[in-house]
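A student in our group prepared the protein record below, which I am reviewing. What it holds is a sequence and that sequence's fold in token form. My question to you is simply how this chain folds and whether the tokens agree. Do not assume that whoever made the record got everything right. I have pasted the whole thing underneath without changing anything:
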Amino acid sequence: MGTFLHASEGEMVCESINPKIPYFNAPIYLENKTAIGKVDEILGPINQLYFTIKTQEGIQATSFKSGDKFYIGGDKLLPLEKFLPKPKAPPGAAKPKRAGGASRGGPMRGGRGGRGGRGDSRGGRGRGAPRGRGGSSFGSRGGGGFGTRGGGYSGSRGSGANSGGLGRGRGGGGY
């Protein structure tokens, strides 16, 4: 995993020789598989990683010399890609859909109902909306809500107390 550089405040400062990133509190071993401590802090730029080891009781950080090697279990490492920004999709590429059509955030999205909707007279629950949430933002009649969260039940032909959102009555619709 790394090589010893120096001791600092009772901990060992090491330079990583592994392209992967160690977990915090991951056990660190000597070549003979003797546990000497745990990863305490991870420092430096992503291409030149340093980490500190908090030693176990009875092990002195000053007892090691520069260049001593330390090891870590392969299951206690994360790939570098986990910490890099995701590459942007080329223009025109399909965006990955979220499960259930839920769109996080933005106004005029229809919340759980997704976009669209069937536009029928029963408040068409938009594509894939779970029962009891009803309402989409665009083009459907009844229910619908104001934009971000959908409405109430909306299966009651759009009239009455259950149509939800700001626009009640027939054709409440979204924003």
User: Anything to note?
Assistant: The beta strands are 2-8, 11-16, 21-22, 27-29, 35-43, 50-55, 69-72, 77-78. The longest strand covers residues 35-43.
